[in-house]
Amino acid sequence: MIRKTQHSISDVFTAANSWPWFPAFSLLLAATLWGIFWFPLRILAEYGLTGLWSSFFIYLGTTLVAVKMLWGRLGELTQAPLALFVIALASGWCNTAFILAMLDGNVVRVLLLFYLSPVWTVILGHFFLNEQFHPRSFVVMGLAMMGAVIMLWHADIGLPIPQSEPDWLALSSGMAFAVINVSVRKTQQVSVGVKTSIALLGAVLVSALLIMLTASPLGQPGWMTIVSALVFGMVVMALMTLSVQYGVTHMPVHRSAVILLFEVVVGAISAMILTDEVMTAREWLGGALVMVAAYLSAFIPNEAIVVQKQG
Residue 207: what pLDDT? Predict the structure, then answer.
């Protein structure tokens, strides 16, 4: 008799622990999916699902996946309750603020302000994870940030200093993303599945709370639009979140932050293919620098980059 065995998505990621390259691959997958996230978001907006409601229905679709991953592991919630609470709140604000900023703000400014997150990650990682850096880590980080600035800089929109509500949303979203990365890395005793489920549920709760506080109207989206948002959340958003959680859990935060900058490259290329936007030579140069930094960050041994503080 052949016994059938069912595996959850999180079990597949857990089994991949034996593959040393899998955390980097997981983060590159997440960055790729986030890089094209703007496209389905704009389609939903065209069909009447915008703002907080778009965030709510997308993350509501992840609820079944979150409950499935959390089921039978409720005991892990007591291992790091404060850190998990921080993950839930930070994830909720990060994702909701990012969606609002992308819908209402200048996309270039939103990306540039959000991708200051590696800076916040490095600072938080130093104070909360006791991570100190070998000089080569600063070279990698500098290369990535230089690439992002070269690629996204536009003289007509000025310096990346918050000047509007979408700007502040993007900046605060990047800060929240850094908090998530550090908190996920700090809770090594909690499984990736539990941390992912907490992050997804947090996004649902925060978006629902903001809808109630702002009395945001739903509008008139068709039922197919709502169903599409739910399915997108259940499949794509759940995979995106799990990929980030796994990669950050198994990699120093300064390395994961650099690899996730690959989203900038994917976003620019997807915009060029799916819209009338054209990438200039400057943008290709910046994208190449980001990719080189991501590659170097992924394959430099930990001991060559991070020196743990003693005591």
Answer: 94
